[in-house]
Amino acid sequence: MNTFGQLFRVTTFGESHGPAIGCVIDGCPPGIAIAAEDFAHDLARRATGKTRHTSARREADEVEILSGVYEGKTTGTPIALLIRNTDARSKDYDKIVEQFRPGHADYTYWQKYGIRDPRGGGRSSARETTMRVAAAVIAKKWLVEKYGVSVRGHLAQIGGIIPKSFDWNAVEANPFFWPDAAQIDELESYMDALRKSGDSVGALVTVVADGVPPGWGEPIYGKLDGEIAAAMMSINAVKGVEIGDGFASVAQKGSEHRDEAARDGFLSNHAGGILGGISSGQPVVVSVAFKPTSSLRLPARSLDVHGNEVEVVTTGRHDPCVGIRATPICEAMLALVLMDQALRHRAQCGDVGDVSPRIPG
Ligand SMILES: Cc1cc2nc3c(=O)[nH]c(=O)nc-3n(C[C@H](O)[C@H](O)[C@H](O)COP(=O)(O)O)c2cc1C
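Output (C-alpha cells, whole complex):
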C-alpha cells in the first residue's frame, strides 16, 4: 500500500537513492492557491544537513509541480509533485549490501520480497516522508483557510530529557523543535556526546491541531483516533502513539480523566479532543514515540543474505536521533488525516450545519 486517505488520497513513490521521489494527490478540491515556493518552509524544517544534530546529507528538496495546478490554483485534477534526489552517496552502503542491519528493515524486506534496494535504505528510508510533508503543505493550507485549523508540533522528550517549561515561540527558534529555550545548551551537549559515542537515542514528538470543529471522524472503522494512530505508525521508526493522556490514563480515575464541561467550555482535555472516534471541538493532541536510529558505527552481530554470522558496522550519514526531524512529519500526517476526514464529514453531513449547544473547545 503506497496510497493514503480516502477522499484526499496521496500516493507516494520513489527510493532514497533513485533519481527522484514523488507523489500524486487525487481528490484535492479545486481553487486552492499553491506555488512551488509554498513547499519550501516545511520541507526545510524536515530536511537534513541543517545542523550537526541531524544527518549530514544535503538534499535540495525543490518541488516541481507536474500537474493539477493552473495559473497558481489547484484544478481538482491529480496533482503530481516531484523532488529529484541530489545527494545520494550509494557507495556508503556498499559494505551492508548483503548484511541485515539489526533494528532496520533490511531483513523483513528481504523476507517479504526476496530482493531489496539497499542504497540508502531504498523504499524503507525516511526519504519517502518528504513527499508526505509536501502533500500536507496543501492540506495545512486548506485546513487553515477553510476552517481555521492549524497543526503544529514540538519535541517532548529526547532520551531522558523532558522540557521544564513550555513556550510555542521557542519551538521554531532552535534545531530541536524544543519548547524550553533554557535547555538548548543541555541538549546540544547531550547530542554532541551521543554523536561522539557512535550511539543513537529515541524521542517523543507531540502534535496538536487547534480549531478542529466538533464532528470530524467516523464511528467504528473510520475513527479519527484510529486513523491518526495508523497514520503516525506509518512513519518510519515509530513505536507508539498516544491520543490525549494515552497510556497515563491507565493510572487515572474516571473522575479525573473525564473532561467536564461548562457553558464557557471544557474544563480539561484528557481525551485529546476525540470522543467516540469523533472530534469534540477541543485541540486534538497526539504524541508519537520514536525508537533510536538503528544504523550505528558501533559493531553489532547479525547475519548476511547467505546466512553467515557477520559483524555489522554502519558508516555513512545517519541521524543520531530520528525524532528530531520527525516533528514536521507528524504534523504532516495529522494534517492529511484531518483534511481527509473533513472532506468525508462534508460529503455525508454537510447539510447538518451547526448543532447547538456547542461547547467552546
Ligand atoms: C526523519 C527520520 C530520519 C531517519 N533517518 C534514519 C537514518 O539516518 N538511519 C537509519 O538507520 N534510520 C533512519 N530512520 C529510521 C528508519 O527509516 C527505520 O527505522 C527503518 O525504516 C525501519 O523501520 P521501522 O523502524 O519503522 O521498523 C529515520 C526515520 C525518520 C522518521
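The pocket of flavin mononucleotide is lined by residues 55, 104-105, 121, 124-126, 235-237, 291, 293-295, 318-319, 322, 325-326, 329 (CB under 6 Å).
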